[in-house]
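Hey everyone, long-time lurker, first post.

I ran two proteins through the pipeline my lab uses and got sequence/structure pairs for each. Pasting them in order. The first:
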Amino acid sequence: MWWRVLIISIAYLLIGAHFLRFNQIELAITAAMLPSLMFIKHIVVTRLLQLGLVLSCIFVWGVSTVDFVQMRMAMDAPWIRLACIMGGVMTFTLFAAYCCNGLTKRNKGLHLYY
């Protein structure tokens, strides 16, 4: 359970660092504070965290990847390593969204009284 919280928090902090790089302070603070919603154990909150990670993977990392690769190609600079790194970042973000599934699951141990 703790590793899910850690992975989701790192993914949101990585998104916040990306926003901070472009001097978007409000979005960076918002992205850094979103993992604190994991303390609310409700399925709607979990789905909102998942949606935030998936949308940021598409609209933040995907758009940035295309922009950075096009910029590198225009300068005749190597771009394959950049594309692999950004692909890894997108994969990590999607894995963090997948890890949100286990945040609200109940323990299926032995229960004598229901």
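...and the second, right after it:
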Amino acid sequence: MDKYNAKTSFQKWFSAIKFEELSEKAKNWIFQFDSYSKKLDFTTTIKILLHAVYEELPSYREIDRAFMDRRLCEEIGIDSLCYSSLSRKTAEISQDVLIEIFTQLARKVSEQRPSSKTTSLQLVDSTTIPLNRTRFPWATFRKTKAGIKLHLNLCYLDKDNQYPESFTITNAEEHDRNHFECLVDKTEATYVVDRGYFDYQLLDRLHYDGYFFVTRTKSNTTITVLEQIELTKRKTTDGEIISDQHVILGGGNNHVTEQFRLVTILTKGQSRLRIVTNRFDVSPTEVADMYQARWQIELFFKHLKQNLTIKQFYSRSEQGAINQVILTLIATLLTYLVKIELNSSATLFQLKRSFHYLCFEPAEIWLERHKPG
């Protein structure tokens, strides 16, 4: 662990961001940002905001007060902070540069993820982040409501290993299906989505373009059974397989799909789930397990909302609010990179909790707590 001796936990956590590896366009923008700032250059501002998001500081004023801790001053490299100055600088941060930092980290995770995790699922869903209509009028989507929507592609390796791979952020009124194809970029990957994305033409388009999918049909879906497949195993983690069929979907005045596979499950709660896929190479129980994995993205959204600062926004501007959501995703990737390096079974929440107490301590103390064995 000698290589960590010169670093605090915060320095170790933050060090995965390589500003020198950003595009020339991003580096030129950062140069311009720094040209107009004596104290709050881009790197310093990002450090302050990531620390604030990760420590769940609720406002610029609380971030300001946090600098009464001399250890934080030494860590960031400034003697004091004026919250109004931070507010101004935050409003100037380029969303494109933050997205590039996120993409850089997501690529590192993909390259460094456990070698034993050779297969993955792409879980796609969205979550609405409600906002106060009076304070955030630009986010209005109904007469009395305001909010933004995070559309996310979560790479799922297993229940202990998943990370955000791509995303887009829109007004809350945007339909999920309109932004689904922005998140689909891996041919031969399997995309798992809920029935909110179900559309005959979309399924065909995914199939023709070389993508696999697993989704749930709607209650009014027209189904024509072409072949009944004999079941050799019925039990699943959440119930029992009722049928495994080859089908086409649609008919009448609707689009008619290619031949797909329909696996019907009776859950332990006695609900029937009809799961459609173009994966013919796996067992029906594996299809059921793939769809069951979809709930992990719901847990991920819950983690974001409960344990990182997106319940309260520092800025009332559209750019400021969106930037804060991106920063929470960046913070998640920074923590997951530490988890990969340690090959640890610790959850992101467990790593975050210990980081809170060991932020300014030598990194080896934080990391030793979560090493396997």
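Reply from user beta_strand_b:
Welcome! Quick read of the second one: The first strand starts at residue 121 and ends at 131. The radius of gyration is 23 Å.
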